Task: structure prediction
Amino acid sequence: MSRIVLLNKPFGVLSQFTGEEGQRTLAQYVAESGVYAAGRLDADSEGLLLLTDDGALQHQLASPKHKAPKTYFAQVEGVASEMALIALRSTLDLGDFVTQPCEAEEVPEPGWLWARDPPIRVRKAIPTAWLRIVLREGKNRQVRRMTAKVGLPTLRLIRWSVGDWTLAGLSPGERRVEVLAEAEAGVNKAFRRGR
Result:
């Protein structure tokens, strides 16, 4: 049996169990022992972080070669033009790598959205928009770098899902533990499970 911990990682929390004095870490939110993050979220990003006690599953979940779709909601500064969305969906040269095509669309502010602490900075003269972006890769700060490249700096970034696992029903700092039977532990089977 493998355990999967689904955590709604709050803003400002490191995706690790230890940190410098005064830094918030996973140790404050995850009581289960022997679990490790499968991938990461930057401290200034929020949302779904998966942890597991199964090393092989951890590797599969974090590996881009398994191409698990990851859905993000990004609040960006500026107006999301169709040209910017087309550029996001295409390949973007970010200098150290070229992105793979992805899904990108403008969406209304999510109805499930919680207040962020601290709130984002708002400039009255500059509008903001919400984008839904689905990646099948996960480079360091990729969504932020992509939106900046098309002239839409990210103000807030929330990962909603990894494969079939979602944040549904989880407030910031809350977690849910799921147990996978041995037959389900392979990542491809795990991602196909209904949730």
Q: What stands out?
A: The chain has four helices and nine strands. Strands lie at 2-9, 36-37, 46-52, 70-77, 103-107, 128-135, 154-162, 165-166, 175-180. The first helix runs from residue 55 to 62. The two ends are 18 Å apart (CA to CA).
